[in-house]
Design a protein that fits this description.
The protein is α/β, with parallel strands linked by helices and 217 residues long. The chain has six helices and eleven strands. The strands form two sheets. Strands 3-2-1-4-5-6-7-11 form an eight-stranded mixed β-sheet, sandwiched between helices. The protein binds 5-O-phosphono-beta-D-ribofuranosylamine. The site of 5-O-phosphono-beta-D-ribofuranosylamine has 14 residues, from helix 1, strand 5 and helix 6.
């Protein structure tokens, strides 16, 4: 009997183009994940429509209805746990997670950040990269820890900044990279090739001290 697929919950707040790449790649058999539920903290997030179109269960809770961050996160976890997720994929989920939530899903939360971490944590990365005159930019898939954009890096997609390109143009190119690297890293997790042990990433049972890097044109 084949191993059951990794049950995955995808958390979004907006467009969900990364979610779409997961939907497409699972449908095409390029990655092995069971996309069990898509959760949004915003009822009008377009990603919910993408999920419904693909026949994936959707859930939504609005954070403003809860007293504090942890109260919201506990409510989210109660909803997600009905789907018994093995993996939580943050895909444009615009919430800082409480330590409680990170602990609850310890070693099972992935995020993608649009910069070559540890450079440029936080918001507005593309403009900041252009302003600093950087030659390289990209995106990073990392494990989530309590430190914002600070968990161990797994996979980076890297590209050269074109002279004269705008932040919007750069953002579009970085997003195209994200749509390749994020499903790939999640697939590794689903295959049991990635683990987080005492803050250290193991890839195929060996310490991963620097992320795997893919260069894109
Ligand atoms: C992505 O660029 C990702 O790096 C960041 O949020 C954005 C989400 O975009 N964390 P989308 O909703 O997947 O289109």
């Amino acid at each position: 009997m084949s191993k059951p697929l990794c049950r995955t919950a995808v958390l979004i707040s907006g467009s969900g183009s990364n979610l779409q790449s997961f939907i497409d790649k699972t449908a095409q058999g390029e990655i092995d994940l069971d996309l069990g539920v898509v959760f949004s903290n915003k009822p009008d997030a377009y990603g919910l429509t993408r999920a419904k179109t693909a026949g994936i269960a959707t859930e939504c809770l609005e954070h403003r209805n809860y007293a504090d961050r942890e109260a919201f996160d506990r409510a989210v976890a109660e909803v997600l746990d009905d789907y018994q997720p093995d993996l939580i994929v943050l895909a444009g989920f615009m919430r800082i997670l409480s330590p409680w939530f990170v602990k609850h899903y310890e070693g099972r939360i992935l995020n993608i950040h649009p910069a070559l971490l540890p450079a440029y944590p936080g918001l507005d990365t593309h403009q900041r990269v252009l302003d600093a005159g950087e030659e390289l930019h990209g995106s990073t898939v990392h494990f989530v820890t309590e430190e914002l954009d600070g968990g161990p890096c797994i996979l980076q997609g890297r590209l050269a900044v074109d002279p004269g390109e705008t932040a919007d143009e750069l953002c579009a190119r970085v997003q195209a990279v994200e749509h390749q690297i994020y499903p790939e890293a999640a697939h590794w997790f689903g295959q049991g090739r990635l683990q987080l042990r005492n803050g250290q990433t193991l890839f195929d049972n060996k310490p991963l001290d620097v992320p795997v890097i893919r260069d894109f044109p």
